[in-house]
Write a structure and sequence with these properties.
The chain contains 4 helices and 2 strands. By secondary structure, the chain is mainly alpha-helical. The protein has one domain. Keywords: Membrane, Transmembrane, Transmembrane helix.
Length: 98
Amino acid sequence: MDANALAQRLSLLGVAGYAFFFLLRPSPEGLALSLGLALGGAGLAYRERPFPVPLFLGLFLLILALQLWRGEPLFFLLGGGLGLGLPYLAWRLRRPAR
């Protein structure tokens, strides 16, 4: 799978999860996981090389600081790790050998 498409799908999944956990089944852990997934998936853009998107990485760091201040960063970091890590892994596995 294309890393850029995977990152976009994970971001959309995070937005859908945020709406679900906000409107239908309120859960602070689910909101944090979904928000981390959405911002993590949008944090890097993939062309020949992944490059950071400053707006989304800045929002990610701001919300991470707020989560650390509250003392509950686990679910946000888990979502962010999945959002950043899975597309990067897909990019590393599919890039041409040099």
